[in-house]
Amino acid sequence: MGAIALLVAGCFGGSKSASGSSVVRVEPKRLGPPRLQQIGDWIVSRDPSLKAAVAALGSPTRCSLLYQDWSYVEWRPLGVNAVFTTLGGLPKGGDACSSPASVVVNDAHVTGSGWRTDLGLRIGDGTSRLHALYPRATHTTDYHRAFWDIPGDYWRLVTTTEGCVGTCRSETTKVARLIAHVRGGRVVALIIPVGAQGE
What we know:
Layout: E1 4-6, H1 9-12, E2 23-27, E3 36-39, E4 42-43, H2 50-57, E5 62-67, E6 70-75, E7 80-85, E8 104-110, E9 116-117, H3 127-133, E10 138-145, E11 148-163, E12 172-183, E13 186-193
Parallel strand pairs: 2-9
Antiparallel strand pairs: 1-5, 2-3, 3-4, 5-6, 6-7, 7-8, 8-13, 10-11, 11-12, 12-13
């Protein structure tokens, strides 16, 4: 990623350790965005801002600007990274790292070995366990993250039916809200697409 790495201590304050919760939860509704999206102590569906992420997960290891209003943020000890942005503008002189209350999460990836879903799928589990826990999971070979198409082996674990924005064949569309990235037959990441900026 071509980015400008920033020192995070001045932007986010001192380091704070999270409570130790390492569960990813996604609870869909019959229609519309998920009722709940949660990464550890961060209840994303309640407050998707970078400020809320820092309050729940602690001070990030780094924040890198992709553009002035896009940032890549990493909590390396936790094995968590996320992309943040805004469609609503930033304070004068601010950017997507220095204005954490003004940017919201586009998507988050968890890769740390201690993470699991609320149904018990863990980082490192094989595809047989994935299918046992998520028998309706559907496969795709591409994932679009911010500005990049990332080919790979992906399984949509939780999807929602939501109103379509843009060019669609119907009024509603299926949206993946929890995805497992598989490599070598094992889960290497859990992806939580949010799109809180409204795209």
